[in-house]
Write a structure and sequence with these properties.
Elements (H helix, E strand, L loop, with lengths): L6 H18 L3 H7 L4 H9 L18 H12 L3 H8 L5 H7 L2 H12 L5 E4 L15 E5 L2 E12 L6 E7 L11 E7 L5 E5 L11 E12 L3 E2 L5 H6 L2 H29 L1 E2 L2 E2 L4 H29 L5 H26 L10 H8 L9 H15 L2
Parallel strand pairs: 1-4
Antiparallel strand pairs: 2-3, 3-7, 4-5, 5-8, 6-7, 9-10
Protein name: Acyl-CoA dehydrogenase domain protein
Cofactor: FAD
GO molecular function, one term: flavin adenine dinucleotide binding
Length: about 375
């Protein structure tokens, strides 16, 4: 078994770390406190090929593998999750276009995202629809050569800064199957009837834009339909292994960043005439944090590698997502504990890591949903 990364992958990690240290860290507290989207940093990231990193080279992207994308996510999130998500989420929704879109759609939507000229988004969740995606009520009805869309989307990343959104809509309300009759349609944000309202006061990842979308008779051309009409659920199932692995990498990054901050603080902070890192209680905390982070990383990398091999890893991807997100919360919690009172204020980054960590247990399927998936796969296929 080969556990090492290639020289090129190590170089990717090093370059991302340098970028984060120079461009993200000095501004992380500012963007978090003011809850504003880091446009300038995103532009710089685009020049490095970090925006749309997995978009194929022929459409202007870097063409990174799932494993390489996981390495990038881990490294960026280890410095600041909010800005990291802002960078990586610029291509949200483009997975469907890459896989099922026609050539015209790929040129119209993928290329400007890869160049950093446009920001995309995925609009699935609704005010009354979270984990039960089959309850989506946003409707798209055909009128001549256009789709007319009405509905309400909630918790949409890039909602007020995105240029277009891949939107899950009900296109056949009479479909018999629970998962039938849904389609994905690209909706541009400058269409008449499209409105977005920024959501503020989030616990964490405050630099990342989140909004509610309201669609009132929004008209888009029929050529904005992605793939076959009524096939959206089958389309989305293609990406869960990769997207959940991506969130697992985010969790690993948060744990790594919190551990790094705790190590530095423990060696600088003195009590009773010595650094607190000399106390066994602190050493044991650090040892547990490092072990958990390494275990989460190995599980995540294994999942990412298997995605690149085209293997069916539904169970493994959910394991990686559930475990890594849990470890992110646990390690960030211990990092705050090591900092004591200093960890309860934003003078140190662990306060931010602690708040940011929680979202990894919620988006892309809650931890409870991941356990349901794991159990279902175990009962159906064994261990």
């Amino acid at each position: 078994m080969e556990f090492g990364l290639s020289e090129e992958q190590e170089q990717i990690r090093d370059e991302v770390a340098k970028f984060a240290e120079n461009e993200i860290v000095p501004h992380a507290e500012e963007y978090d406190t003011e809850e504003k989207f880091p446009h300038d940093i995103v532009d710089e990231a685009a020049e490095m090929g970090l925006v749309g990193a997995s978009i194929p080279i022929e459409y202007g992207g870097a063409g990174y593998s799932t494993l390489e994308s996981a390495i990038i996510a881990e490294e960026l999130f280890s410095y600041d999750p909010g800005i990291a998500l802002s960078i990586l989420a610029c291509s949200f929704g483009t997975e469907a276009i890459r896989e099922f879109g026609d050539e015209d759609q790929k040129e119209r939507f993928l290329e400007p995202v890869a160049r950093g000229e446009k920001i995309s988004g995925a609009a699935i969740s609704e005010p009354d629809t979270g984990s039960d995606v089959s309850s989506v009520s946003t409707r798209a009805e055909k009128d001549g050569d256009e789709w007319v869309i009405n509905g309400n989307k909630m918790w949409i990343t890039n909602g007020t800064v995105g240029d277009f959104f891949v939107m899950l809509c009900k296109t056949d309300p009479d479909a018999e199957g629970r998962y039938d009759g849904f389609s994905q349609i690209v909706v541009e944000a400058d269409r008449d009837g499209f409105e977005s309202e920024k959501i503020t006061g989030k616990l964490g990842i405050r630099a990342s834009d989140t909004a509610e979308l309201i669609l009132d008779d929004v008209r888009v051309p029929e050529e904005n339909l992605i793939g076959d009409q009524g096939a959206a659920f089958l389309q989305q199932m293609q990406f869960f292994d990769a997207t959940r692995t991506g969130v697992a990498a985010q969790g690993v990054g948060i744990a790594k960043g919190a551990l790094r901050a705790a190590l530095e603080y423990a060696q600088d902070r003195e009590q009773f005439g010595q650094p607190i890192s000399e106390f066994q209680a602190i050493q044991h905390k650090l040892a547990d944090m490092a072990t958990k982070t390494e275990a989460a990383r190995n599980l995540t990398y294994k999942a990412a590698w298997n995605v690149d091999q085209g293997n069916d890893i539904t169970k493994l991807a959910s394991m990686a997502k559930e475990y890594s997100s849990r470890i992110a919360v646990d390690v960030a919690n211990e990092a705050v504990q090591i900092h004591g009172g200093s960890g309860y204020v934003n003078d140190f980054p662990v306060e931010r890591f602690y708040r940011d960590s929680k979202i990894t247990q919620i988006y892309e399927g809650t931890s409870e949903i991941q356990k349901n998936v794991i159990a279902r796969e175990l009962l159906g296929k064994g261990f």
